[in-house]
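Changelog-adjacent note: as of this version, every example in the card shows the full chain rather than a window. The one below runs 532 residues end to end.
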Amino acid sequence: MHAITICRAILKLLSVALLVCVSAAQAQVGGSFDTTFGATNGFVPALVIGTNDDDRANAMALQSDGKIVLAGKCAGVIGTFFCMARLNADGSLDTSFDGPGTPGNGKFLMSVAGSVSASANAVAVQPDGKILVAGTCTDKFCIARLNDNGTFDTTFTGIGGASAGQFALTIGTATDTLTAMALQPDGRIVLAGYCDDGTSSSQTQFCIARLTTSGDFDAAFDGPPPVSPANGRFLLPRVGTNTALPERANAVALRANGRILLAGRCANGGLMFCLAQLNTSGTFDTTFDGPTGTGNGKVVLEIGGSGFPNTATSIAFQADDSIVLAGICGLVTCVVRTTPNGVLDASFGGNVPGGLYVPGVADSGIQVPSPLQGAVAFDGRILAAGPPFKITRLNGDGYPDRVFDGPPPSTADGFVTLTIAASVQVVQAMQLQPDGKILMAGYCRSTGSSPFTFCIARLNDGPSGARNCTPDIDGDGGATATIDGLIMTRVMLGMTGTGVTGGITFPVAAPRKTWSAIRSYLVTQCAMTLGP
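Full-length structure tokens:
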């Protein structure tokens, strides 16, 4: 009788907990607007920076105090300039962010390297609160470092110590275009993009630079020989085999071991996703060898057939160090996953091996692909956002998270289209807050003839993805002691590989019968850290 009473009490507690969870889920549907943000119930549709009717936010970063830094390109009286805005956590302008330019009071244009043809494409916040913003200034990489109030940090003295907070730098011999930036734990700054060597503007190559904390070239970053000019910056040898088409690095990210991963597009016949991984010295990491085992630091991925023109635009990592790439596959946006050494992961859901096509806009042109931003949430789920203002969330295995519904009317398919502006809206950047909420920023305009302005939205994340982790380890729809229980016991004892699956007869309907599939599930859905 006593045992029955205890069981009833436990069931009652579980029922109450379930009601609380259901109530919370109803209150904050994943993908719905966070109505505590902005003056328009979840978004800021028209943040004007300049005075010449063309403001475009390209990048976003979060400060430790919850403030949001936006950077982009704005038109001045003559030419285009870096422009910045900082918002408080509620979406209002932070008027203490005054900057070195006008109009101040939370937003401003600024001149970098004296250029009147400039665009900020990347922004990052240092641990000390200083803000790095980088982009392209008259066909050169350029960068600025700002103090917390937005003024130039004059201790950022640049190449040769001759600057005072902002400067340009040369990598190739002609046109250099910066697309991405990463900040190392030791404070050194990695800048990436594509450059040409002066022989042909159609034959650009991946290029990269690393700066010291003061902004000078890091001479220890020498690159894979033979490269030029080395001593802190260089063009990479071609990743693909087709030298007639341009190669472009669109994203850079740091691995847990400090190695540097670049992603973009190159050509082996047609245009394809391609990756290059560098050691901390800048040489190719030969352990990153791709599907053939002979990549030697360079990997080309064929997705959807050789006739599809593909380009990667974003990099993220899952808990097991798997690589999640977002980009363009043919005429649609797509998300793919590779193993840590660059092999397409065939267990990742969707409708192509190792990838999921995401319904989105057609590619606006292979030369300048529409960006798709990707991120991995703390619970292993994958978010991908792209133009116009679309976002999808996938479970850790690559299939749509169907509770990610967005604002009404609900479609329950994991894909959400947001209305920020009545005419044109283009998302360029996405960030996940520590509380799981999702920020999307870009540029919008309300009518076909109205000016472009910065715009930003914040979405609720909904209930935690931990609900995806169940005792049904093999995925056949049930949980048994002799299969699922045995697998978990072996895993908890530290076993891996066939030590986990050996001697088990799996049901025909079970989708997870191999150690690779089981490990992927436990890492991405159950937040476990496991050996190979």
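Structural remarks: The CA atoms of residues 313 and 371 lie 6 Å apart.
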